[in-house]
Design goal:
single chain; alpha+beta; Four Helix Bundle (Hemerythrin (Met), subunit A); Nonspecific Lipid-transfer Protein, Chain A; five-stranded mixed β-sheet; 11 helices; 46% helix; 10% strand; pyruvate; metal ion binding; Mycothiol maleylpyruvate isomerase N-terminal domain-containing protein
Length: 279
């Protein structure tokens, strides 16, 4: 069963909450904090803020206005698509270095509301304009696309909070939909893993804001299963490590020192290579 065929993940109602928290956060930052380095490699807090603005603007232009602007050419693989997106991101953040923090905040306020209004018009069960490629899908439903957009907004705000030492977005209401969406990448991460039919893998994000996700090998594919009686491999990870690991903010090597594994170590460690972001 593909993620889009599972029960929808409700995230749309959380967009205004995240946007409001973001604006309050950005308005509180000092000049030094705007220029702070983040776990997103070469990006500063200001670069990430610009990237969030780009997400709103591109979403409105492409999804609402059917205006694609720069179209990818010669995309023959997943890595080609990632390279194209990285190039888009780089050209945007370079151009917006000339924008002041106040201008970025103002634009985020207006475009965030417009994008939320647009997303409300989409039928959750119609095909989305873009698939959620990191989940292994070639076609996705709108609810999954919207949930993916939620993870983008959550992740990048969390990166800013992490960089400037502000409280994390670690509430059940906000974190669980984020990590639940990320975990839709679990079957895809195991797609090339050899195991006998009936093998069960469980990933547990600990504490009250986390949860458990399990997949089973059936008919040569991996699919989600309700909480099993027994798992062949279990991997337990803390929420703070989970958001970093699955968004390229931590290496799988570093994660090995932090997670708890029960059962088949080799099978469990495949989960350390989940990537629920594109670029």
């Amino acid at each position: 069963m593909k993620p889009s065929e599972s029960k929808p993940i409700e995230t749309l109602h959380l967009f205004p909450i995240l946007d409001s928290l973001l604006i309050d956060l950005l308005k509180s930052l000092t000049e030094e904090e705007w220029n702070a380095k983040t776990v997103a490699k070469k990006w500063t807090v200001k670069d990430i803020s610009s990237h969030l603005l780009d997400g709103n603007l591109r979403g409105l232009s492409i999804s609402r206005d059917q205006y694609f602007g720069e179209k990818p050419e010669n995309i023959n693989s997943y890595s080609d698509l990632v390279d194209f997106l990285n190039q888009l991101n780089m050209t945007w953040t370079n151009a917006t270095k000339r924008l002041s923090p106040n201008v970025i905040i103002s634009l985020l306020e207006t475009t965030g509301k417009e994008y939320y209004e647009h997303l409300q018009t989409l039928n959750p069960f119609e095909n989305a304009i873009f698939s959620v490629a990191w989940a292994g899908e070639e076609t996705s439903l709108n609810w999954f696309h919207i949930a993916r957009e939620y993870t983008e907004k959550f992740l990048h705000q969390q990166q800013i909070r992490d960089a400037v030492g502000k409280p994390a977005l670690f509430t059940k209401d906000l974190f669980y939909p984020f990590i639940h969406t990320f975990m839709q990448a679990l079957p895809n991460a195991y797609r090339n893993t050899n195991a006998k039919n009936g093998t069960v893998i469980s990933l547990i994000v600990t504490t009250s804001i986390g949860g458990q996700w399990s997949i089973i090998k059936e008919d040569e594919i991996w699919k989600f299963i309700d909480t099993p009686a027994q798992s062949d491999a279990i991997i337990k990870i803390d929420p703070n490590d989970a958001w970093l690991l699955f968004s390229k903010g931590m290496t799988s090597t570093d994660a090995k020192e932090k997670v708890e594994i029960i059962g088949d170590t080799t099978l469990a460690e495949t989960a350390l290579h989940i990537v629920a972001v594109m670029a």
